[in-house]
């Protein structure tokens, strides 16, 4: 599919995300008419970071999170077996582009630039970016007020859209990028950075898991969309999209979402 057509598809899907009722009706009609693909027990390697709650993390030695529950439910419909592989974020999309994994989860933001090297599923979540700060910090309530502080520093994860937003808003000299978000959160709690630029759902996951943190109401870059990423030409895009629509129509999608996100808010 050409880049221009992908951009049109992206806009359409964003509109569907913003109109839940219409999206449910479309999903119900699609689920009723689709002939279900059967993947014949095929193993599907799912790349996750295991360091990005509530999407994925390790708890008591076990991988848990929205990605785990969602792909387990998808494979129950498609007759496949999800095999979750821990992959560092900085190599995840390159690995997908090279066909090392069947699909990448991990809360990946759709961008036109990424669309040139990997294929994407339909969008599954709309979100915005936020500033995560210490709960007792009253020095600023907006990004502009943060910028007025002397020698301020914000943390984020290297190679993410959050890093792009951070450097655009605050300048390279005021951004400290970490290999994972976990160390960025620890730096925030230890007063080594003043804030962390992160997707709001992930920020709420860290708040629920660790406490002592809060987000600011300000949206840093507007609404964006998350999607699964695949190697170019993957035969999994259609069946997984169909399964996603069926889970949305049945209510299972909402159940999984509420388990991992509404409980963290």
Fold and architecture overview:
This protein is α/β, with parallel strands linked by helices. Helices cover 41% and strands 22% of the residues. α2 crosses α9 and α3 crosses α9. The longest helix is centred in the N-terminal third of the chain and has 15 residues. The chain starts with a helix and ends in a 5-residue tail after the last helix. The N terminus is likely disordered.
Q: How much of the residues is beta strand, in percent?
A: 15-25%
What's the alpha carbon Rg, rounded to whole Å?
Answer: 19 Å
CATH class of the largest domain: Alpha Beta
Taking all residues together, what is the mean pLDDT? 88
Question: How would a crystallographer describe the biggest sheet?
Answer: 5 strands, mixed
Main sheet: which strands, in order across?
Answer: 11-10-12-9-13
Extract low-pLDDT stretches.
1-33
Termini distance? 38 Å
CATH superfamily of the largest domain: Periplasmic binding protein-like II
Shape descriptor: elongated
The proportion of residues forming helix, as a percent range, comes to: 40-55%
Which CATH-level-2 architecture of the largest domain?
A: 3-Layer(aba) Sandwich
Secondary structure category = alpha/beta
Order of helices and strands: HHEEEEHEHEEEEHEHEHEHEEEHH
Number of helices: 10
Number of E-type strands: 15
CATH topology of the largest domain: D-Maltodextrin-Binding Protein, domain 2
């Amino acid at each position: 599919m050409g880049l221009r057509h992908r951009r049109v598809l992206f806009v359409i899907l964003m509109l569907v995300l913003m109109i839940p009722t219409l999206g449910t009706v479309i999903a119900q009609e699609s689920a009723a008419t689709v002939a279900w693909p059967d993947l014949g027990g095929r193993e599907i390697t799912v790349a996750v970071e295991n360091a990005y709650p509530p999407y994925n993390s390790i708890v008591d030695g076990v991988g848990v999170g929205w990605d785990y529950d969602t792909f387990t439910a998808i494979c129950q419909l498609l007759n496949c077996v999800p095999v979750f592989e821990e992959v560092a974020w900085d190599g995840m999309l390159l690995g997908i582009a090279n066909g090392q994994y069947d699909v990448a989860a991990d809360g990946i933001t759709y961008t036109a630039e990424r669309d040139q090297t990997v294929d994407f599923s339909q969008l599954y979540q709309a979100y915005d970016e936020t500033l995560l700060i210490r709960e007792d910090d009253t020095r600023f309530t907006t990004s502009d007020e943060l910028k007025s502080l002397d020698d301020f520093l914000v943390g984020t994860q290297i190679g993410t859209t959050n890093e792009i937003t951070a450097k655009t808003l605050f300048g390279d000299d005021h951004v400290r990028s970490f290999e994972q978000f976990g160390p960025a959160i620890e730096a925030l709690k230890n007063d080594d950075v003043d804030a962390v630029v992160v997707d709001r759902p992930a920020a709420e996951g860290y708040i629920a898991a660790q406490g002592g943190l809060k987000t600011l109401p300000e949206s840093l870059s507007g609404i964006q969309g998350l999607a699964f990423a695949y190697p170019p030409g993957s035969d999994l895009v259609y069946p997984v999209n169909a399964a996603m629509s069926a889970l949305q129509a049945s209510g299972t999608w909402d159940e999984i979402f509420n388990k991992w996100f509404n409980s963290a808010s």
